[in-house]
Design brief:
heterodimer; A: 110 residues; mainly beta; 11 strands; 61% strand; B: 112 residues; seven-stranded mixed β-sheet; four-stranded antiparallel β-sheet; 0% helix; 52% strand; globular
Chain lengths: 110, 112
């Protein structure tokens, strides 16, 4: 059965901390792995990863994929209260289909 | 450029009633999707449309029908609502299947 598992389920940190979110997957026909940030409403796209070992970076956020060990991590450095959200990992496992993990809820306190 | 829009934002239905959720995108995307999001379950694909004129079932299609009206619009219909269909529904679109998806703001549906 295809599945995507995220850990931890929930994380509480203080501003300035660095966090690492994990996503492991077991799917057939892997094509890419995507990270989304969901605040109150719609998930917003962060990264798409297709190749192992190539870090994608956007400001304080970065992500990397390991296709041999079947996982990805999302790092957030110098966290801010605005980073509080649910972070979703999804895997494209077939044409036009994504399977999502249940998400990691990050709370950043001042 | 509104992106992906959905109507309505909120809806309360009684068991057995029907309704249609509307979705439109103005990004000239080929692929469109309907998801539901339940606590602890993540986003699950209901139906998708790879291009105008085609639709396919996703992970949880039972109790739903869809129509890809044109390239811009993709509607989701509940013919006879059940309490198990209480959820938040998201529409999404992408340029094509191997590109990132962009999500609408969601519709919160409660079936009593």
């Amino acid at each position: 059965e295809d599945k995507v598992v995220q850990s931890p389920l929930s994380l509480v940190v203080h501003e300035g901390d660095t966090v690492t979110l994990n996503c492991s997957y077991e799917v057939t026909n892997f094509r890419s792995l995507l990270w989304y940030k969901q605040e109150k409403k719609a998930p917003t796209f962060l990264f798409m990863l297709t190749s192992s070992g190539i870090e994608k970076k956007s400001g304080r956020l970065s992500s990397i994929l390991d296709k041999k060990e079947l996982f990805s991590i999302l790092n957030i450095t110098a966290t801010q209260t605005g980073d509080s959200a649910v972070y979703l990992c999804a895997v494209d496992y077939n044409t036009d289909k994504l399977i999502f993990g249940t998400g990691t809820r990050l709370q950043v306190f001042p | 450029n509104a992106g992906v829009t959905q109507t309505p934002k909120f809806q309360v239905l009684k068991t057995g009633q029907s309704m249609t959720l509307q979705c439109a995108q103005d990004m000239n995307h080929n692929s469109m999707y309907w998801y539901r999001q339940d606590p602890g379950m993540g986003l699950r694909l209901i139906y998708y449309s790879a291009s105008e004129g085609t639709t396919d079932k996703g992970e949880v299609p039972n109790g739903y029908n869809v129509s890809r009206l044109n390239k811009r619009e993709f509607s989701l219909r509940l013919e006879s609502a059940a309490p198990s269909q209480t959820s938040v529904y998201f529409c999404a679109s992408s340029y094509r299947g191997d590109y990132e998806q962009y999500f609408g703001p969601g519709t919160r549906l409660t079936v009593t």
